[in-house]
From TrEMBL:
<keyword id="KW-0238">DNA-binding</keyword>
<dbReference type="GO" id="GO:0005730">
    <property type="term" value="C:nucleolus"/>
</dbReference>
<dbReference type="GO" id="GO:0005737">
    <property type="term" value="C:cytoplasm"/>
</dbReference>
<comment type="function">
    <text>Plays a role in the recruitment of the exosome to pre-rRNA to mediate the 3'-5' end processing of the 5.8S rRNA.</text>
</comment>
<dbReference type="InterPro" id="IPR007146">
    <property type="entry name" value="Sas10/Utp3/C1D"/>
</dbReference>
<dbReference type="GO" id="GO:0000460">
    <property type="term" value="P:maturation of 5.8S rRNA"/>
</dbReference>
<dbReference type="Pfam" id="PF04000">
    <property type="entry name" value="Sas10_Utp3"/>
</dbReference>
<dbReference type="GO" id="GO:0003677">
    <property type="term" value="F:DNA binding"/>
</dbReference>
<dbReference type="GO" id="GO:0000178">
    <property type="term" value="C:exosome (RNase complex)"/>
</dbReference>
<keyword id="KW-0698">rRNA processing</keyword>
<comment type="similarity">
    <text>Belongs to the C1D family.</text>
</comment>
<dbReference type="InterPro" id="IPR011082">
    <property type="entry name" value="Exosome-assoc_fac/DNA_repair"/>
</dbReference>
<dbReference type="GO" id="GO:0003723">
    <property type="term" value="F:RNA binding"/>
</dbReference>
<keyword id="KW-0694">RNA-binding</keyword>
<comment type="subunit">
    <text>Monomer and homodimer.</text>
</comment>
<dbReference type="GO" id="GO:0010468">
    <property type="term" value="P:regulation of gene expression"/>
</dbReference>
<feature type="region of interest" description="Disordered">
    <location>
        <begin position="121"/>
        <end position="144"/>
    </location>
</feature>
């Protein structure tokens, strides 16, 4: 009997797919972390504008806290009763604030000059010429 067969008997077969997916996810996280760690943080931040720097910092701290959440769960500690839950909620709040700022930056700006010209031309203004033409009947129309 091989070691793999022995380990298959130690846990229910229903969770084998979940464990396989978890292992693949850990591999992906490991690759991403190696990529991020290969570049110095100061070098990376120099290439980003302040909003992008904030996004990077928030994603980094959220990922770290999420990994700690998983660690607590693997140790049999309920992460919902641990302070890490409040920390994740706090980070989410800041992520939403950064998202709002980014959305405002992308929103179209109002051209006040064009808007005032549009409104001015759309409104009817009585003047001497308009009063004169309104008193005389239009050509081709019969009065009743």
């Amino acid at each position: 009997m091989s070691e793999d067969d022995n380990s298959m008997e130690e846990y229910p077969t229903e969770i084998h797919d979940y464990l396989t997916a978890f292992e693949k996810s850990l591999g992906s996280v490991d690759e991403m972390l190696k990529t991020m760690m290969s570049v110095s943080r100061s070098e990376l931040l120099q290439k980003l504008d302040p909003l992008e720097q904030a996004k990077l910092d928030l994603v980094s701290v959220y990922t770290l806290n999420s990994m700690f959440w998983v660690y607590l769960a693997t140790q049999g500690i309920n992460p919902k009763e641990h302070p890490v839950k409040q920390e994740l909620e706090r980070i989410r709040t800041y992520m939403n604030k950064v998202k709002e700022i980014a959305d405002k930056k992308k929103a179209s700006k109002l051209d006040k000059g064009a808007a005032s010209r549009f409104v001015k031309n759309a409104l009817w203004e009585p003047n001497a010429e308009n009063e004169h033409t309104s008193k005389t009947p239009a050509k081709g129309k019969k009065r009743q």
